[in-house]
Design goal:
Helix content is about 45%, strand content about 15%. It is of the alpha+beta class and about 230 residues long. It has a four-stranded mixed β-sheet. The chain is elongated and about 95 Å long. The N and C termini lie far apart (about 85 Å).
């Protein structure tokens, strides 16, 4: 039985004074008085404690900002641009003078049905992570595509980012951006990394599989290592 029910029962049904009931249960007389008054207005609903949650949240995102978040997502996606929470946050800050946390933006995107749920990911324990035992034991090279955004927010140039990484510590030995990665750039960036960090014992070039020209360049680099 709730404390509210006990207090109301003692005063209303048993006829005890509010002061006596307050002393018996270690409560203030004003609280007992408010509870009895509430029972007279609401009936049995007074037995249940009222929620302490405010009617409105002081930090709730304004409706017009939520609409702006949704509009930015749709506009960026329609233009083939990144419409993630980080990008939307940048546009809100620089173009609209509004600061919204990325987690808040993502919550509103999900509520609007603009985020496609991802299938359940494999557990981390199912992955086998390769790690070289010593620095310079194995280097890995890869390149990724990235679309730049101009200062005014328009679509920028499409570039390719070439990287060399030490498989022991995951240290980024070299990261360069190019309009298009070519064999000469692979060899040049490798030589530069060697000047700074020494020659690796072996190479891992799976990131270039599928590009015969780049695989050929990496093979040349591997010959340098082997020699």
């Amino acid at each position: 039985m709730s404390q509210a029910r006990l207090v109301i029962t003692a005063v209303v049904l048993e006829g005890r004074s509010q002061a006596e009931v307050a002393r018996s249960y270690g409560l203030s007389r004003s609280w007992v008085s408010r509870l009895v008054k509430r029972y007279g207005i609401e009936g049995k609903a007074a037995f249940t404690a009222r929620s302490k949650r405010p009617n409105t949240l002081a930090n709730a995102t304004p409706h017009e900002v939520v609409e702006l978040i949704v509009a930015l997502r749709r506009t960026l996606s329609a233009q083939g641009l990144d419409g993630g929470s980080a990008t939307i946050s940048w546009h809100l800050t620089h173009h609209h003078g509004v600061t919204v946390a990325e987690s808040t933006i993502m919550r509103h995107l999900r509520a609007a049905g603009l985020v496609t749920p991802q299938p359940k990911k494999r557990p981390r324990t199912s992955y086998i992570r390769f790690e070289a035992d010593q620095p310079n034991e194995t280097w890995q090279s890869d390149f990724t595509h990235f679309r730049l955004t101009n200062v005014d927010g328009t679509v920028g140039e499409d570039v390719e980012i070439l990287s060399w990484i030490d498989d022991h510590s995951r240290l980024a030995l070299s990261i360069t951006a190019h309009t298009r990665v070519a064999g000469a750039m692979v060899r040049a960036t490798f030589r530069k990394a060697v000047q700074n960090y020494g020659i690796p014992a072996s190479m891992n070039h799976t990131g270039f599989d599928g590009d015969s020209q780049l695989v050929s360049s990496i093979s040349e680099v591997s010959l340098i290592v082997a020699s």
